[in-house]
Amino acid sequence: MKSLINLLVIALLLISCQDTNGTFDASGTFEAVEVIVSSEVTGTLEALKVEEGSVAQKGQPLGWIDSTQLYLKKKQLLAQIDAILSRRPDIATQLASYRVQLETAERERKRVENLFKAEAATQKQLDDANAQADVIRRQMVAHRSSLDVSSQSLVSETLPLSAQVEQLDDQIRRCRIVNPMEGTILAQYAEVHELVTVGMPLYKIADISALELRAYITGTQLPGIKLNQQVNVFVDDGTGGYTEYPGTVTWISSKAEFTPKTIQTKEERADLVYAIKVKVKNEGYLKIGMYGEVKI
Question: Does the pLDDT value for residue 72 go beyond 80?
Fold first, then answer.
């Protein structure tokens, strides 16, 4: 009796571990969002610290492109700006003589006013003293206005050069290769000391901590699936069995398409299928392009 029970247990284990092909609802391949990082400037690639299979963090500096000529051009523009601004008039110095004249005229006006009050000066003498002070004051205001206009004109003359400096700063910043996202380096396309141009691919990166299985279901299966639904994903373990992973439906296509040649659905004779994406947490075994099966 004990031997019979052992045989039944072994039989059940074999049944549970046998290939379940044909019982799945959908199948497809794993994919991830792959980002190709390209050069934003033209120049010699001075450094590129990437290694296929390594993990890079978001914002991590991974290299740089030669920016010597950009830096020298920036220095030239800054020197031109300094040369232009050096021609700005020294307003305080140029108005100093007017201030001395005005102070003298004000003292004279005050003296004549006191004499006029003491009836030792005429009205004409007082009027002349007031007029002289007013003339000097107006001359000083007019000259200051002229100096302000001249100074502002020179500042305006530097604005296009300042804009060019900002453009060069932006280009110099783009010479630094900064990783845009956290992920695994999938491929390297450029080598150090190569001449790279704008748009030339440098490396490819993807976040493979979680992959999406793009599978296909038939129209009859469509009503039985919805977004955020929990499903089971099976991947061949290489020994004739399957490794099971929990998955979440993150996308369902809104239109039908013809069955891909590499995909077999539950109803193999169906001409039209709907694509779905199932997100699966990757613990390191899943790879991009690997086949997977879905059980809804």
Answer: yes
**pLDDT score of 265 more than 70:** no
DSSP assigned state of 213: E
DSSP 8-class letter at 260: P
- Measure the CA–CA gap between 253 and 90, rounded to whole angstroms: 72
Closest residue by Cα to residue 219 from 257, 269, 275, 273: 273
Q: Is the pTM of this model over 0.85?
A: no
Count CB atoms within 10 A of the CB of residue 215: 29
Q: How many CB atoms lie within 10 A of CB 1?
A: 5
Say if strands 242-252 and 176-178 run parallel, antiparallel, or are unpaired. Answer: unpaired
Q: How far apart are CA 89 and CA 151, in angstroms?
A: 7
Which pLDDT tens digit goes with each residue over 239-253? 888 999 999 999 999
Count of CA atoms in the C-beta half-sphere (13 A) of 17:
10
In terms of Cα–Cα distance, which of 145, 146, 133, 143 is closest to 101? 133
Strand ranges (E), the chain: 26-31, 34-38, 43-48, 55-56, 61-65, 176-178, 183-188, 195-196, 201-206, 210-218, 230-236, 242-252, 257-258, 272-281, 291-295
Band the pLDDT of 19: cuts 50, 70, 90.
very low
